[in-house]
Specification:
This protein has about 550 residues and is α/β, with parallel strands linked by helices. It is about 40% helix and about 20% strand. The chain has two domains: about 1-280, P-loop containing nucleotide triphosphate hydrolases (Rossmann fold), CATH 3.40.50.300; about 290-535, Class I glutamine amidotransferase (GATase) domain (Rossmann fold, 3-Layer(aba) Sandwich), CATH 3.40.50. It has a nine-stranded mixed sheet with strand order 13-12-14-15-23-22-21-18-19, sandwiched between helices. A seven-stranded parallel sheet has the order 5-2-6-1-7-10-11, sandwiched between helices. Strands 16-17-20 form a three-stranded mixed sheet, with helices on one face. The protein is globular, with a radius of gyration of 26 Å. The structure holds glutamine.
């Protein structure tokens, strides 16, 4: 087992997760297996109880782990399913140590941060690495060097270096290389200070990634190499990129793969970056555009919807189209703050969410798409709100709603899952993770998945109320996907509509560059057709108008 530990300096939000993922991808391209761990130094046991405005989207794994969004990046870049153990948080570490203390495992000792907390962290990392089939384990330490919260983690990885040895573990440090507009020169001092801070802890970085707006000049690289005591080929420039998927290529061009092979004495056998390059070329080449609206409630922080954005990029690359996302706040639609919100759209995507704020805006979007034949995909809450809209306006149950938003509605078409009725704790108690869904043969969904048996990831507490299924189906909302028990509704398709689909699960979470989520492929394909039909219609009416004018002149 080899380890690469990635730390961050100067400030947060430098894209450490993407750099870690890209570095992992480069190692994978050598024909080696890679796993990745994210360390989050917060006290929450997992990301599940956090508002998306805190740390962005809550990513869900097959095993039901609610984890940091970086695990989504790792899964997409490494094309590998991870487990909740791949996300270590301070909360998890302390919980485990305190449980051990209560059991009496420490045999009368005083339990302390060093060695008990640090040992727990180190052993946690080693265990995940050993239990995986990987040759290399990449560990990203969240936060910035110097943070009080990160201190035990830095000490733990310092000790790991001592224990496994210098040949088997290397440190990479991500910093900022700003340009002062007055002098126009790339400044290396923040990097020097950040590395100095690391060295004070006993960590000497082997590799430095300098984030900057433009590529770093050779002189800047040499300066960093000299002052931070690393070879110049170990100073890697990471300028702003057209997409996150360009980053592995950018790193490879600077010789990072060769440096990693040499530094960690890796037995590289093969080079499969070619597929990745082709994927990036497909993103770059797409010229035609389609406009898809994303109706959310955390749209001011795009990271809240990162997996949706990525799934649309993967789909665009497959279908040779650029998907332009029109961000719409559901609440603004509701309050009439956006004029003509649905103008110039070729499709609507309503993602998941919690809480009543914006739920009526999502209902309005579903109504518009249903009535206008506009392609629509509703995910989780989007699926639930489209069901409520259909119940109100087609089935005729005017006050239909989810009991999440109106506990006294006479028609709770969306209701609490029966097993949730006695739940009191909020953390980790939703219906989570990958569950089997059986899909009707001949449905659009089975056609898109090329299967009638699928496994998708879930994160919900409410579901379609079984008492209303017959009425909904009679009116044209067909539940073509169900859990094996047949009473839990998973996918609906609307009869007579080109593409109006809702799913209780989250297809965006399993979308990968080479395997876009099937329901996203369906949405974007339908959006392309919708746009073509609209253009043809506009052309025809343009011709007609021209013809009328010519007649008049005569
Ligand atoms: N709030 C809804 C539920 O709990 C939807 C959840 C979601 O969209 N992830 O069922």
């Amino acid at each position: 087992m080899r380890y690469v530990i990635v730390t961050g300096g100067v400030l947060s939000g430098l894209g450490k997760g993407i750099i870690t993922s890209s570095l992992g991808r480069l190692i994978k391209c050598c024909g080696l297996e890679v796993t990745a761990i994210k360390i989050d130094p917060y006290l929450n046991c997992d990301a599940g109880t956090m508002n998306p405005y805190q740390h962005g989207e809550v990513f869900v794994l097959d095993d039901g782990g609610e984890v940091d969004l970086d695990l989504g990046n790792y899964e997409r870049f490494l094309d590998k399913n991870l487990t909740s153990d791949n996300n270590i948080t301070t909360g998890k570490v302390y919980r485990s140590v305190i449980n051990k203390e209560r059991r009496g495992d420490y045999l009368g000792k005083t339990v302390q941060i060093i060695p008990h907390i640090t040992n727990e962290i180190r052993m946690g990392i080693e265990e995940v690495a050993q239990n995986s089939d990987a040759d290399v384990c990449v560990v990203e330490l969240g936060g910035t060097v110097g943070d009080i919260e990160s201190a035990p983690f830095l000490e733990a990885v310092r000790q790991l270096h001592h224990i496994v040895g210098h040949d088997r573990l290397m440190f990479a440090h991500v910093t900022l290389v700003p340009v002062l507009s007055v002098v126009g020169e790339q400044k290396t001092k923040p990097t020097q200070h950040s590395v100095k801070e690391l060295r004070a802890i006993g960590i000497h970085p082997d590799l430095i990634f300098g984030r900057s707006q433009f590529p770093m000049g050779q002189d800047t690289k040499e300066k960093i190499a000299l002052f931070c005591d690393v070879p110049v080929e170990a100073v890697i420039s990471v300028p702003d990129a057209p997409s996150i998927y360009h980053v592995p290529l950018m790193l490879e061009e600077q010789g990072l793969k060769d440096y990693l092979i040499e530094r960690l004495d890796l037995q590289a056998n093969g080079d499969s970056l070619a597929d990745w390059r082709k994927f990036v070329q497909r993103i770059d080449r797409a010229k035609n555009e389609v406009n898809i609206a994303l109706i959310g409630k955390y749209t001011h922080l795009k990271d809240s919807y990162i997996s949706h954005i990525e799934a649309l990029i993967h789909t665009g690359a497959l279908l040779n189209v650029k998907v332009k996302i029109k961000w719409l706040e559901a609440e603004d639609i509701e309050e009439g703050k956006v004029k003509k919100p649905f103008e110039d759209l070729h499709g609507i995507l309503v993602p998941g969410g919690f809480g009543w704020r914006g739920s009526e805006g999502k209902i309005m979007a579903a109504k518009h798409a249903r009535e206008k034949g506009l392609p629509f995909l509703g995910i989780c809450l989007g699926f639930q709100m489209a069901t409520a809209e259909f119940s109100r306006n087609v089935v005729g149950l005017a006050e239909a709603n989810s009991s999440e938003f109106n506990p006294r509605t006479p028609h709770p078409v969306i209701d609490l899952l029966p097993e949730q009725k006695t739940t009191t704790d909020m953390g980790g108690t939703l219906r989570l993770g990958a569950h089997q869904v059986l899909v009707d043969k001949g449905s659009k969904t089975s056609h898109l998945y090329k299967s009638t048996e699928i496994y998708e990831r879930h994160r919900h507490r409410y579901e379609v109320n079984p008492d209303y299924i017959d009425r909904l189906e009679e009116a044209g909302m067909k539940f073509v996907g169900r859990a094996p028990d047949k009473i839990r509704m998973e996918v609906f398709e609307l009869e007579g509509h080109p593409y109006f689909i809702g799913c209780q699960f989250h297809p965006e979470l399993k979308s990968r560059p080479n395997r876009p989520a099937p329901l996203f492929v369906g949405l974007v394909s339908a959006a392309i057709d919708y746009k073509k039909a609209k253009d043809r219609k506009a052309k025809r009416s343009g011709k007609k108008a021209k013809g009328k004018k010519a007649k008049k002149k005569k």
